[in-house]
Amino acid sequence: MAESTDTTIFLVSPDGSQRFPVRVNREVLSSKSRVFAAMLNSEEAEVPNCTDFESFVKLLKYIHSSNLKRDLREEGGVLDVLNLLKLFDDVGFDDGALSCLQYLEAVPWTVGESMEVRSVVHPLQSYGHHRDTVIARLTSYPSPDTEDSVMELMKGVTGNATFNNSMLRDEIRNLILDILIGDPPISRDGQQAFMKYAFQQSCDMLIDHCRVLSNQLTEMSTTYLSEKISQVTQHIMWLLGVMMDEKIADNVVDYWISKNEISEYYRKMNRSARCVVLMISATICIGIGSKKILAPMQARSSLLKMWLDFIYADYDKLVILPFFEKEVIEEGIGKTILTLPYDQQSRYFSDWFVKFQAGKACPNLRRAYQVWWRLSLLTDRDLGSDLIPIIFFQ
Predict the structure, then answer these.
(1) b/e map 125-145, b = 16+ CB within 10 Å
(2) Which CATH number fits domain 6-137: 3.40.50.9100, 2.40.160.20, 3.30.710.10, 3.90.870.10?
(3) What is the per-residue pLDDT for 144?
């Protein structure tokens, strides 16, 4: 730049305390930039309120460059080129802006870079075809095509072929997670719609298997269907885990208890299959107890009314399942009971204590029971009564 310079541009800081001189070629700048053409009408010019001397010097270097495409390749990456594109557009350096757009159109972007490309390129009013080719790689987010693709993935992960291939199933699950909660995640409404669809599809598949199993007589068919029920149930539990982590599982309780035919088929299934199905209700209780599922009171009450007796009846078999986390599930059930009205709490805890005191296999709800008992004492004392829960004297 120095060999043919004939003009000095002073870069002045916002407070005027710094004046940084840069020697430039007036003819080159005036011919390539509309802003500089208007500015450089003498041997000196001033750029006020300059907050980034380094970037401005880089801008001048690019305007003087004889090989823009080569220099852009050495710039560092998409975000650096986007910063240059904004500078070039600001000073009317059209050749530089076009070179940036050509570079951006030809290289891959990450998701984060795509969002930056959108924010910088979309508002540009010039550059015609070159701008349009970059915009063509962008779409509204999420687009209908994206939603359809995720729905197809959801169908795939609940398909029989996928369930029979654990590696494929896990890969599709990871792909779904990357799409739903990656960076940037899709909208909350989109997450809920996709996961709700998958949950409902899986529950419907479970009902079909349970219905068939409840009518099977041969040992071979029973074993096959029990395995299918286990696969679908574990998938539902995976879905529940994702939905609870993302705080979008509040509506699953209503849907689960609406499928009362599952509880009807449950009575006719073998114990192995029954215990696997029980884990869905137990997992929902974990979500309620950990405050990850905020279900309506009526739904919580119906959940326990429909499933708690089954949990008691098959608890000895339930505890030996390989994915059963005893303390976590017991805490979830106990805390779910504590979310009910006091009279319902009393009935459930009284019934539990009778079973527990008799040595029957059942979840250990001791911690939740203590909370209920202490609250009962406080309530009775406030009412001026000396009563304590009668269950302690049985």
Answers:
(1) eebeebbeebbeeeeeebeee
(2) 3.30.710.10
(3) 46
